[in-house]
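Changelog-adjacent note: as of this version, every example in the card shows the full chain rather than a window. The one below runs 170 residues end to end.
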Amino acid sequence: YQHWLDKCVPHVTLRWCFWLIYFAIYMIRAILLEGWYIVTYALGIYLLNIFIAFLTPKIDPAQNFGADGNCELPTKANEEFRPFIRRLPEFKFWYSATKAVSIGLFCTFFDIFNIPVFWPILVMYFILLFLLTMKRQILHMIKYKYIPFSFGKIRYKGKDEKSATNSESL
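Full-length structure tokens:
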């Protein structure tokens, strides 16, 4: 089992595509069966929680305020550079999300988890919770000037083969 997990670590896009398909299967099952709204709501809350942990820095800048109230993050070129380190790394985020969908899918096979509830209230409450949580997170990111997303290191390409062979023939 661990061998397969280790093999899938470098395949980020493939892992998330698998998760989206898996999550779509769960959602289709929940919609077609017209039930398990509490399980779906709990899954949504958990996914929101781990997403916020994914967006949050490991060391909270709010705790690094000096005595004068100024942030101790580097703001000038001569200060120390600190890279953005996540509280929840991407692979653990994917793994936790996949386990959560698996547990949710497992719960849909048992009627004991199909608790009758008026689902529009859960949807509205989840949307409100999502908006308020994301607003707070975005304001935190703006206040402490960090961006949790990076698209990797810039890669410089060398000469292409045609120009390399043309320069060799001269």
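Structural remarks: The mean pLDDT is 83.
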